[in-house]
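ugh finaly. both done.
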Amino acid sequence: MSEGTQLSGLTGTATKVSPSFLGGAMIIAGTAVGAGMFSVPTVSAGMWSIWAIAALVFTWFCMLHSGLMILETNLNYPVGSSFDTMVKDTLGKRWNTINNIAVAFVGYILCYAYISGGGSIVVHTLEATVGFAPPQILAGLMFAVGLAFFVWWSTKAVDRITTILLGGMIVTFFMSVTGYTFNMKAAIFFDTESGMSTGSYFPFLFAALPFCLASFGYHHNVPSLMKYYGKDPKKIVMCLGTGTVLALLLYIIWLFATLGNISRADFAPVIEQGGNIGVLVDALGRAVESTSASNMLSAFGNMAVASSFLGVALGLFDFLADLLNFDDSKEGRLKTAAVTFVPPLIGGIFFPNGFIIAIGYAGLAATIWTAIVPSLMVRVSRKKFGNPQFRVWGGETLVWIIFGFGVVVGTSHILGMFNLLPVYP
């Protein structure tokens, strides 16, 4: 029996079978987890462990439900419709222009960030294993071009490779984290030697919020999932719920491993060196002298950045195809691929060390289309269509919670840009 088709009894008719929700959940988890694993510990150095976990849990809650609001709205439009279609019809041309710029900016800057991070971790891995590595620019270029092929080929290809990558991530993650977790020290994790109270870390939380939001930024994949599964809200909700919960659990475990081994003071040089992935891996290697754990962590880093790149690139690819009206033929997908990948590749060549800075700006712009626009859009959609196929629970209260979260995150990043928020170090 071929995948996607089964024969229906004696009639011989063929009925299409929707793919398993597991593939979609892996796309969501892979997009969210990825390189966020390496930015979250670094930006958590200010607020430290307790507030970092609290910020992640609340961000997860808001980002899951804003994604469900996008799904609720998206179900009222033809399969293949993305933000350009939905926002224009619900909020008008002005909001659509703002949202399109924000979506494209985030997609491009995250692709650039993952090319930067991918080049960094590839160089670190090769130097640690074979003693030689190409320049980071060349490593990032090879990393991006190789993965771009799967996005150009099909969503199913991304599904398959992301599932493989996430499986490898889980194995290498637990093999590496087991060593780090067994060596974690409560005094480091709770920063008891500094003499600071838990409340004194709270002001640092706001500067980290944009990075937390960016670490759950899967929303551009919601239209891609509807394109993949059709109008099957139950299955897509399972994808979003399973994928984001898995991402949250991995983030929390990872915080135990990193913040339990690298002291708050030792994060200062990591931040000063730009916070790129290879720098954090080096810091962990110095904190816990375990060659096997370090090798497993490097393998995890390679797969994490690759899965994030694939998820973000797929969402940007489908968004641009909808925006530019490129068809789904191989030639049309080739044009979309060129528009999708050439700009971040140019950025990766000329600015190879912008990982943490790029993630922060992505979090700022992402507040528009992952929190503010979904909350406004779903209100109009409910009035216009009634949304009979699916409705997110919580009514107006939840809508305004998501909207308020977006405003707080965006404001925090702007204040941080003007040095009006406490930052560490």
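ok and the 2nd:
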Amino acid sequence: MRLKKNILGEFLKEKRMKAGLSQGDVADKLGYSTPQFISNWERGVSMPPINTLKKLGQLYKISADDLFEVTLAARVDEVKAELRRKFDEAR
């Protein structure tokens, strides 16, 4: 499910660009075979696994607290959108 507001993806893209890295650079450093994974996270198609988020935080020099807060906000948005969909379907 695509997030209504892509809070985490936009945050990660901004931090990646600030670090001067391409999606391919990040994929290589994380051991992914293709930059499509990074693209999907940044577009809000999927979310990185928690252990990968920690690695991204280290790579992008993001504090654990900042990364936690942005991830939490993204999850809240995701749950809110899913709950809204279910309520709308139940009408």
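summary for the 2nd one i guess: The chain has one domain: 7-89.
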